[in-house]
């Protein structure tokens, strides 16, 4: 994994992006030659004239594939998934290129050349992904890891490995029992040899040692052996760091308070706050201009179906626990909570109107929150704001829940693009793990990643209710 501004990108994903870029360059130049040079060898001057166009095309195509989630680590790696995500990626890229050609006519391509380029790009990437994923299913690229511990934390690694079967997983080559820790690991995976950790790492050719023991106090903890492994190039990481790096969340049942206190991240500096505010204003202003016609149509449809009011105002908890009034398009019937008692939204909730069902699925109901962002009550990206009633309940039942209130809530967030809609205490715990990851690692780069993934969520209607 490569760390870019506290966001981890797998080397495999970077490899795929790099090869995709080369394939797209190739498709563009072949298509452009067909359109402009009729298969003659182009001169250096002609190639230079094509360079701005190829950069625009590659960027548009990579962006489109990223929007469709084709670089996610948890993407199912098979032919059908690649095909059904690549087709809309081509369509999105085509729309972007038409828009750019309209603004910058000098980059315009003929219809014949553009058709050849898009067809070649589609075929090259589809064939490349099919071959790569078939090879990737082998164990060649999977890191080899020894796990120190055989208790519940260690078992959680195995559980997560099965649950996320489409990820680039580690090969857990053995679990070493620590001290008198209880065992939750199958006997076939236990290592009982009485050797030092470094000797075991050498024998089993381990790339990494993951510390998953339940208890770390006392003189039995092998700190010197772990230091020896690290000094000889074997990576040593905590299980909480493993989940943060590989899964993009901070797992509650493997979290130690000292890890939060002494670990990195949680940047609340003036520079980061200023950059985030500038980003919020720019992104919100652009979104307001683009979606204003959609918002007008939505308001009209709400009036026609169920009358006024158009907007739904509700108290939510923001930064530092301060409350504010969030603004949304009304998607439920009037007096949806007659007894005034807040309740979780449910699947096929009968309180949701016909128009409300549509705007919820497309996330249009969230657009008025642009006003909250411009008023500095929310950020464009951040943990979703929750109602005080639920915050009071969740704070007493879930450790560290208030950590998510150390930054401003957002219209979209890491939990929204990585986890389905939540409607229970259990869902709140799962989403908190993603919120903690964002609070710890938030940066401008991560905000951009979340925006791209949000487009995928909206287009594929993920997690709406």
Question: What's the topology here?
Answer:
Blueprint: E1 2-4, E2 7-9, H1 11-37, H2 44-67, H3 79-103, H4 111-136, E3 144-148, H5 152-163, E4 171-176, E5 190-191, H6 197-203, E6 208-211, H7 223-231, E7 235-238, H8 239-247, H9 257-262, H10 270-306, E8 311-317, E9 323-329, H11 354-361, H12 369-374, E10 379-381, H13 388-397, E11 410-412, H14 414-418, H15 425-441, H16 444-460
Parallel strand pairs: 3-4, 3-6, 4-5, 6-7, 10-11
Antiparallel strand pairs: 1-2, 8-9
Helix pairs in contact: 1-2, 1-4, 2-3, 3-4, 10-11
Could you characterize what this model shows?
The protein is of the alpha/beta class. The chain has three domains: 2-136, no CATH class; 144-262, Rossmann fold (3-Layer(aba) Sandwich), CATH 3.40.50; 270-460, no CATH class. The chain contains 16 helices and eleven strands. The strands form four sheets. Strands 5-4-3-6-7 form a five-stranded parallel beta sheet. Helix 1 (11-37) packs across helix 2 (44-67). The radius of gyration is 25 Å and the shape is globular. 30% of the residues are buried.
In brief:
Helix content is 53%, strand content 10%.
**Helical content band:** 40-55%
- Within the largest sheet, what's the order of strands? 5-4-3-6-7
Number of strands: 11
Main beta sheet strand tally, sense and closure: 5 strands, parallel
Q: What is the straight-line distance between the termini? A: 34 Å
Please compute the radius of gyration using only Cα atoms.
25 Å
| Strand and helix order | EEHHHHEHEEHEHEHHHEEHHEHEHHH
- Sheet-strand content, in percent, reads 5-15%
- Shape summary: globular
Number of domains: 3
């Amino acid at each position: 994994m490569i760390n870019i501004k506290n966001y981890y990108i797998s080397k495999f994903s970077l490899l795929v992006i790099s090869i995709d870029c080369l394939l797209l360059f190739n498709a563009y130049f072949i298509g452009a030659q067909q359109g402009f040079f009729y298969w003659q060898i182009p001169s250096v001057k002609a190639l230079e004239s094509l360079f701005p166009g190829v950069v625009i095309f590659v960027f548009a195509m990579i962006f489109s594939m990223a929007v469709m989630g084709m670089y996610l680590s948890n993407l199912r790696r098979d032919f059908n998934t690649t095909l059904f995500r690549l087709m809309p990626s081509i369509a999105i890229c085509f729309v972007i290129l038409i828009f750019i050609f309209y603004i910058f006519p000098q980059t315009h391509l003929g219809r014949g050349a553009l058709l050849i380029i898009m067809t070649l790009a589609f075929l090259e990437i589809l064939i490349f992904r099919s071959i790569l994923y078939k090879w990737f299913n082998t164990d060649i690229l999977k890191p080899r890891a020894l796990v120190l511990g055989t208790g519940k934390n260690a078992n959680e690694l195995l559980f997560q490995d099965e649950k996320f079967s489409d990820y680039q997983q580690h090969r857990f080559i053995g679990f070493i029992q620590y001290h008198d820790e209880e065992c939750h690991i199958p006997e076939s995976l236990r290592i009982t040899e009485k050797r030092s950790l470094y000797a075991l790492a050498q024998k089993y050719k381990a790339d990494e040692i993951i510390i998953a023991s339940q208890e770390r106090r006392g003189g039995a903890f092998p700190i010197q052996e772990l230091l020896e492994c690290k000094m000889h190039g074997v990576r040593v990481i905590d299980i909480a760091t493993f989940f943060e790096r590989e899964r993009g969340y901070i797992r509650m049942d493997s979290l130690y308070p000292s890890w939060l206190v002494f670990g990195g991240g949680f940047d609340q500096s003036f520079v980061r706050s200023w950059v985030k505010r500038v980003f919020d204003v720019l992104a919100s202003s652009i979104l307001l201009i683009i979606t204003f016609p959609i918002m007008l149509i939505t308001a009209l449809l709400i009036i026609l179906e169920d009358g006024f009011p158009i907007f739904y105002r509700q108290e939510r908890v923001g930064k530092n626990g301060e409350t504010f009034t969030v603004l949304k398009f009304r998607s439920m019937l009037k007096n949806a909570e007659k007894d005034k008692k807040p309740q979780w939204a449910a699947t096929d909730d009968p309180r949701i109107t016909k128009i409300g069902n549509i705007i919820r699925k497309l996330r249009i109901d969230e657009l008025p929150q642009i006003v909250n962002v411009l008023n500095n009550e929310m950020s464009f990206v951040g943990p979703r704001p929750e109602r005080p009633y639920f915050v009071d309940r969740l704070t007493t039942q879930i450790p560290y829940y208030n950590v998510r209130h150390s930054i401003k809530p957002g219209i979209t967030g890491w939990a929204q693009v990585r986890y389905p809609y939540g409607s229970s205490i259990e869902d709140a715990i799962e989403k908190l793990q993603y919120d903690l990851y964002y609070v710890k690692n938030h940066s401008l780069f991560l905000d951009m990643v979340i925006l791209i993934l949000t487009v995928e969520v909206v287009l594929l209607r993920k997690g709406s209710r």
